[in-house]
Amino acid sequence: MTAKPRSSISLERTIIPIHYNLKIVPCPVNFSFLGKVSIEICIAEPTYGIILNAKELNIQTATARDHLSTSGYSVTATSVSYNVEEETITLEFPTVLHVATSWILDITYIGLVNERLNGFYRSVYTDADNNIQYLLAWTIGDFDYIEAYSSGEFNGEPVQCRLYAPVGLAIHGRYSLDLAVKSVEYFARLFNIPYPLPKLDLVAVPDFAPGAMENWGLISFRTYAVLIEEFSSHDRKLEIAATVIHEISHQWFGNLVTMDWWSDLWLFEGFATHLAYIAVDELFPEWDIWSEFVKRIQEVLKHDSLRTSHPVEVGVENPSEITQIFDEVSYMKGASVLRMLSVWLGQEKFLQGIRKFMLKFMWGNANTDDLWQTLAEECQMDVPGFMQKWTRQTGYPMLSITELDESTILVRQNLFLSTGDVREEEDRLIWPIPLSLTTADEPAARNIMMDSKEMVLKVDTNKWYKFNMGQAGFYRVSYPSKSLDLLGKTFGAQRLGATVKARPGPLDSADRVGLLTDAAALVASGNAATSSFLTLLKYFEDEEDYMVWGEVSLRLQELLSVWLEQPAPVINALKEVQRRLFTKIVKRLGWDYAEGEDPSSGHLRALAIRFAGRAGDPDIVAEARRRFGAFMANKDMSAIPPDLRFPVFEIVLRTTVGTEEYEAVVSYYRETFIPGEKLVALTVLGYASSQELVRRTLAFAMSPEVRTQDILTAIATLRSSTMGRAELWDFMRLHWDVLYNRHCDDLRFLDYFVVLSIGSFSSLERYHEVQAFFSTKDTSLYERILATCLEGIRKNILWLERDRQEVENWLQVNGYLPKGLHLGPGGDMMVETSCGHLSHADRIAQQQHFYNVSSGVHQAHYVNTNGVAQSIHGSSTTNTANSSRSSSFSSSPAPSPRRVRSGSSPNGCHHHSPSPPSFEDEQVQLLLRQQQQQQEQQQKLEEQHHLHQHQYQQQQQQHRQLRQRGPQEQLMVQLQQQLWQEQRFKLHHLQMLERQEQHQQLREQEECQQKKINEQEQQALENGMELLHVNEHKL
After folding, report:
1. What whole-number distance in Å separates Cα of residue 923 and Cα of residue 91?
2. Under DSSP, is residue 3 helix (H, G, I), strand (E, B) or coil?
3. Position 173 pLDDT exceeds 50
4. Which of 87, 147, 153, 247 does the annotation list as catalytic?
5. What are the binding residues for Zn(2+)?
6. Structural contact between residues 378 and 352, judged by C-beta atoms closer than 8 angstroms
7. What are residue 397's DSSP bridge partners?
8. Which of 121, 547, 818, 936 measures 20 to 30 Å from 781, CA to CA?
9. In terms of pTM, does the model score above 0.70?
10. What is the rounded distance in angstroms from the CA atom of residue 72 to the CA atom of residue 177?
11. 1004 is catalytic
12. What whole-number distance in Å separates Cα of residue 1 and Cα of residue 589?
């Protein structure tokens, strides 16, 4: 709130709000509401106008009154102006509002209860008896609740904690309620400040855009983020614990002390994340949570190694920028640099400084500099100088180790970019780096602060040594090959002790995870060969730690994702690497859980079954399909324990050749009311491998059966196959305008949808397609994430081009790929099938037929199990008769023969055989020879292409030579170039006109429909006003 004029969306403190008295009267009949607010304000400078933040509100009256005036002076605003872009309103008064501390601003307004999961919105859910319930964002609805009280040991008296959930589901909130009771006392002790409210409520909301929101005393969650069945998997329990504790920590750090402005968002979100891990470590010491933290920060390390990243502290000047900074950099890099600071200062000193900060700024606002200054005073160290380099500089460093002799090493810091192309002007940044060096002779970490570009250290290079002990530092380390080999041999074969805390050896699981993640990042960036990472994996074959194996699986999936469109022999060979690693674990642990088994063994079993099955191990696939059949046919829950449910469902859908298993999973999704189980069923649908099922998954995700908050979950796994990627990308382009208009108000939907649709690409063709598509779009709401995706695609292209042949050589040398196998130029291998290679236009045409996109109106169809096709158009749903699921393709012309990647099914869809054949099999060898013959034909076409390219290059060379000869020749070249550019422009212009015409038709139809909707809403609002006043009078 501020007096006008002002220079930015940050409301200047010329008008200071003191107290708000808010009254809301909702009308569930027409989904509108009447609001009335009285704001006590202090006016510091005379003004004729007041600016307030507001969005989609219709102001009815606005009056300013001086409540201390003996004459009862008041003045009514004569005009209200709206700034939609900046989400503000301006109240204009006919006379000046004088300086005083006694003003009351009374405003009445009307708004709509929308369906966009933003602001005041409504949610519809079905209870166990199939009754429709209406749940409003103010948590108005029919709830069950469970209740517990904290001990009161550190709060002075017990705090009432309740968990509310839709009818019939509250029983699944016991785990989260227990976490809340413990956390309220834990943070009261940690901050030495009692919980400031008399109660704490947790509410499970069926439709909720963010995962959770830390509203003071009333924390709202997605049902999946807070409700959990008794025998859920470890990963689910850990995820919920981290989320619930994170939000409760905000009751102190975020609510009791609030950020000064959005630029300080990172501090409060990063700190809450860091605090959640500290709390989980104390409440569940057996979980080895800091190894999980090291795994978790890999995503932000990947994101922050791109030029499109941003500093932790980032300025905010426009409302659209606010949603874009709710990302991994704000949360996880913020948490990571705070952890690094905590380790550097010592955790007890760090927490003591935090307590002082909380006491100093409680019931007020604070910024990042306030915290650094408080910590510096408490710890007597230069905290601002240390942290500002980490929070105000984009990116992070890589330490390059050079062994000068047998007892001396040179440590050099450089900016790390995952594209590997750091420019000289970019590499001038210097970070203060806590090295935390451990050696074979000195197992206790040496705390060395590196604040220069280079540093020389004395180390025995004939023995192992490791930097970043404990992985608290936010940086990468590049070791010489000899040192990396020593580390791998020494620690790759370590065994797990009786408990996590009793593990032998100097390197715990967090350090071994760090060793793997650094190695994987360095090969992706070109700082090391990919073969060095594959060799390092061999040292971990006998590893027994679940956290380490989890990281192995993630890094292998990253490699396979980039290589996904390579020839089948190469992909199968990489999967064989994965299969051999994980099958060995399954053989050791088996499928069944032993009584009294260490929980970590159960987690490792589930992980190994999933990735051995994903790699196509025939025995594991067969057992998964057997258990799936028993589970679905007899509803035998014991056939698939909770930890194995996701792996088994995934394996079955990856290897299915029909629709029976797919239908079974869809039915399970519809029948279960347990949020976690519904999400498992929804997520695995994307693993289906046929084109028909991929398209059904896309249509199902957009249907009314899937909540808006779960759409992204439903389509995320489509990225795991080439067919899924292509279909998702085509679907996005086909339906972008509808999706954008429907979800542009969702905080993160657009960001994540863009990432899921394009973030996995690794070809130049796709890169250009993405650029061309978004060149005609308004990208202001997601420009940062789009730029990040484009740079990530570029990184994948460079990695693949750089190491494709080198990886094939390693696979051949190590027996995973037959030696002498000819894969042709670029590693491509093609086979002739009856499907035909569809161009982009053909794929779009086929999708248009499947989704029934006609007359410029986007209308997605899905088919239910009763053979009834349902369509989605905007927010409406219609039913049309449809005799069978296959009828969607009945009018499609038969596809012509085409070339497709080897490993495709007869219908052109990539699938995984339950039992991948060995390369020694005679039939496979015959297939490979046929593929090679086809590839030789393709090679001829490539040679012709190269010839044309060579001729073009010669022409370009001639043009350059002509430019050096004189004005006449230069004019000739310019004319030729101008003619060529005009031809390109004409083609581009025709394409643009065609797209604009299509878009114009679509806009006209949508505007016509929206006009009708607006008229209906206006009529409903007018009809409901009388009822609103009646409701207000009753209240």
Report:
1. 80
2. strand
3. yes
4. 247
5. 246, 250, 269
6. yes
7. 415
8. 121
9. no
10. 50
11. no
12. 62
